[in-house]
Amino acid sequence: MQKSLRNNRVQPENEAIFVSKRSCTDILCLLLFLCVLGGMAYIAYIANLYGHPLRIIYGQDSYGNTCNVDNTPLEEKWSEFKGHKLSGINLKGYNKVYFYNFRSIFPFYDEIPGTIVCVRTCPENITNVEDHKKFSLKAKSSLCRYDVNNSRIFNGDSEKDRCPPLPLTETIDILNRCVPRVKFPVSVSVKLSDACNLKNDILENLLEALNDIRVSWFPLLMLLLIGLAMKGVNFCQGAGKAFSLLLENPLRAAVINGVGWFVLFVGKILVAVAVLVIGIFGFNIAVDTIFLCFCLDCRENDGDSKPYFMSLALMKFSEDAKKAIELENQRSIKRENQNVNAPTNTDRGVTPVET
User: Fold this and answer.
1) How far apart are CA 50 and CA 173, in angstroms?
2) Is residue 42 within 8 Å of 51, Cβ to Cβ?
């Protein structure tokens, strides 16, 4: 060990620890990072200027209204909904999106346009007009367009083009979207289960492979930065040296990390103990303050001409405590009287035996 250390000391690359002649490294990576940073800043600016974050959360209907929002009429020149009579509706409480034609979500699959409305509850089993009526009364939300008179929905077919065709597919709420409930046969369910198990196995192996990086990323980063500062090398060379240094000293790295985690644990324990002590001390002060206020209230007020400031619960508690103290005093006096009146051996006619 000493011989290897002696040999390492005389190596030229170990003699010059700090590099005096330095130059810029990783210029290409820096330029790429600045380009990405500028692009993200521009995207954030455009999204903040023209976007609507609530549309991602609650979605929007076919007329430019955001669900669960008190909308205002759209006036943008580029908007296709400008001047639409159903634009700018108060949809507070209508926080779910319902699609008349679910296949219209994917234009490459179905080119038939489908109406999208905001509803309060996703429909489950609606097969006829009566079911639609019961759903509307229960959920206080119709599945038809907003300009359809609810009293006419159930009386004929005059407005059926503005209502979803019956029967309706059963839907469930997923991320505030009414998505059709799909029921697979047993064979398909088994195949899907096998596929999910295979995916889980692949993910488990991948996570195991990345576990070492997840655990040791911080020491790697610190050693990388130290190597960059001392040697003046580029990022890739610094990462390689940091990784090789960790591989050469696994036990030392484990000991240092263990000591660090132990110190952190002790710090957490000390903080918890300090908070507990301060909390108990504060509680003691609060109880003493309440007791002083209670005593002052009992001395200054009589409960008749001068009502008490204490609450009824505290008054009842104090009365119960007073009764309990009186009963305990009576019991102690009674026990003392019994001990005084108890007959001795001489009174019973028993003479002591001399030894």
Assistant:
1) 28
2) no
Nearest to 83 by CA among 60, 63, 67: 63
φ/ψ of residue 118, rounded to 5: -100, 135
Strand partners, 90: 70
Task: Flag the least confident range among 10-14, 27-31, 79-83.
Answer: 10-14
Residue 187: pLDDT over 70: no
- Is the pTM of the predicted complex or chain greater than 0.90? no
What number is the average pLDDT over the span 49-59?
A: 84
pLDDT per position as a tens digit, 193-231: 777 777 677 878 777 777 767 777 777 777 767 766 766
List the domain boundaries for the chain: 23-51, 59-184, 275-334
What is the rounded average pLDDT of the residues 186-198? 67
| Two structure tokens written together for 245 | 């240094």
Residue 337's alpha-carbon distances to 12, 98, 120, 341, 342, in angstroms, are: 100, 86, 78, 6, 8
By the 8 A CB rule, do 153 and 159 touch? Answer: yes
What integer best gives the mean pLDDT of the chain?
76
- Residue 262: closest CA among 252, 251, 254: 254
Question: Does the pLDDT at position 329 exceed 50?
Answer: yes
